[in-house]
Amino acid sequence: QLQVVESGGGLVQPGGSLRLSCAVSGFTSGLDYSSIGWFRQAPGKEREGVSCITRSDGFTWYADSVKGRFTISRDNAKKTVFLQMNGLKPDDTAVYFCAADIEYYCSGYELDSGDFRSWGQGTQVTIST
User: Fold this and answer.
1) Can you say how many angstroms the Cα of residue 24 is from the centroid of all Cα atoms in its chain?
2) How far apart are CA 32 and CA 39, in angstroms?
3) Rounded CA gap, 88 and 73, in Å?
4) Over the stretch 66-110, which tens digit does the pLDDT of each residue have?
5) What per-residue confidence (pLDDT) applies to 29?
6) Using CA atoms, how far apart are residues 36 and 84, in angstroms rounded to an integer?
7) How far from the centroid of its chain's Cα atoms is residue 77's Cα?
8) Which of 8, 39, 42, 106 has the CB geometry, 3.0–4.6 Å to 20, for a possible disulfide?
9) Beta carbons of 105 and 54 less than 8 angstroms apart
């Protein structure tokens, strides 16, 4: 089981920016993550996939609701993935979860939480005046 730790949440005004980080550790020798995904869950709503990136070639996927505003990137040496969130809206308010897997490769399809076996505890993102 990998250890996944998110950081960077907080309270910002509409139109503001936040950068979330996701650090992954606990790999068995010779293994590494294949994909890291970001999900979010707002109160009373189901968890939804936000973005995903593959370690090998940096393929990225975004939910339609965040395209053009969020950017996912990776630092393979540090086994860390970042989610830069710009143009934040009140609807972006949610707990953001990072998830990692060593076999799943994100593609052009909507993320499914069942594809990821290791999860962080989540970080709260609140967009409000």
Assistant:
1) 12
2) 20
3) 18
4) 999 999 999 999 999 999 999 999 999 999 999 999 999 999 889
5) 76
6) 14
7) 18
8) 8
9) yes
